[in-house]
């Protein structure tokens, strides 16, 4: 079988790494095949860099002193890798501990700090695997190998950092939202956002959104501190926000009243969401709002701005979320989830989020959000997603109707405050 120089060089390097690590023969063969596969995947993900796949192309390694990255201090380190040096070192220890406890590695023979720096650079910048490999003095396939298992590990760590607030935390969130807006009972803000990707190879039309781009529709709930409290990633961009919400585990738990909220607590969302006792949207403005309803909507939007701020900060920190050049759906879901996990990791460790650069767009204020709420259209259909037929479906539909009636009553009572 003829191999070009690039593939041959990559295979030799993978083989050398396996032999150095001294695994048993069957494990060594498996590791070799896995790493060679990751190398090929790395070349495919950089599909635009066709020159790498030309028959006469030869990858020339550039010697890079990666220890310079280790010695780099703040603020330069944070500017490049988005984390301050102390927070980064804590992430290295946390990730290494998880890899060992989860059984992903038997033992860590070398530090994962440089592989983690490669992944952070990819997530924070729109560079290709080829350019990152050149920056760190390795092959593109090596970069992709580390990228694939690290973002998968970060995704699996999501339950450690993306958690629904307990009763004590909800009390604090409610108090801060009420002090800010005058509206009681708010424990979170719900919204969806598009995560743009390269057109998938299968059923790509389902990913085309109303902006005529290919994307996932990601749903998130945040608190007043921009901490993501619930995340649902992976639905196609053509799906309406309300339908994405209906297909999420959070919706099922809220409708069935599984103890996430007390009767006087709720989350808020824009007018794309149907009213429930646990989810309150603003009053729709069709030109007939009363003064009290307009005042309610204004106070409402002051709170709802937090989810816009959370998305803005996350996209500004981890810029690859704006456009991920990947045709691999599973890899894209891992990447987006890992980005939100790192967003929460920074907040929970007291890290100051980087302000948006001027070319990163703007975060809307309350008046912008009020205008946007008035323009929202509820174009969702009423089919039941993820529900079984028969008696179970009828019972769930009854719970939904109950939640809707209770939500209308709750919002009417809140209106009396204005």
UniProtKB/TrEMBL annotation:
Required co-factors: a divalent metal cation
Residue ranges of domain DDE Tnp4 in the record: 190-344
Ranges of Acidic residues composition bias in the record: 364-387
Places the protein is found: Nucleus
Residue ranges of coiled coil: none
InterPro entries on file: HARBI1-like, HARBI1_dom
Region (Disordered): 364-393
GO MF, any single term: nuclease activity
Lineage: superkingdom: Eukaryota
Record key words, sorted: Hydrolase, Metal-binding, Nuclease, Nucleus
GO cellular component, one term: nucleus
Similarity remark: Belongs to the HARBI1 family.
The name this protein goes by in its record: Protein ANTAGONIST OF LIKE HETEROCHROMATIN PROTEIN 1
Annotated source species: Frankliniella fusca
